[in-house]
Amino acid sequence: MNANEVRVALKEVMIEELNLAGKKPDDIADDAPLFGAGLGLDSLDALQLAMVVEEKFAVKVPEGAPARKIFASVNALVAHIVEQRAATADKASEAGRG
Question: What percent of the chain has pLDDT above 90?
Answer without folding.
Answer: 67
